[in-house]
Write a structure and sequence with these properties.
This protein is an alpha+beta fold and 137 residues long. It is 15% helix and 42% strand.
Length: 137
Amino acid sequence: MGTVYAEITLKNGDDVSDARRGRIKEQEVRQVSVMAMVDTGAGTLVIDEATCQQLGLGIKGLRRSSLADNSKTICKMTMPVEVHWKDRNTFCEAMVLPDAVTVLLGAIPLEGMDLMVNPVAGELVGAHGDEPLGMIV
């Protein structure tokens, strides 16, 4: 299986909450669409400093982390980000890796959207089917 990429949209979670409460208009929610590398070995969403700034994300603290090359680093952890892929979405914090080359879509947001990698097709699929989840109110 090769590297799997997926187009995702990231939204500032605080903005999303403010829009739902009527404090800002939906079109004022800061968001960006990116081609992310799906990395089941990464714990969460990994973004670079520029993406963090573009989304206007607050920083809630620092976390020690081990990278794929076994080096250790300390990264900023953001306030919630809403992650969208097709008809699915979830909230998670993001790890800010200043010199990240690409956005990484890790295990926590994948699980939150009920997604997995199909190793034969080399693509993201619904873990329990691909039918639209919709919202049950």
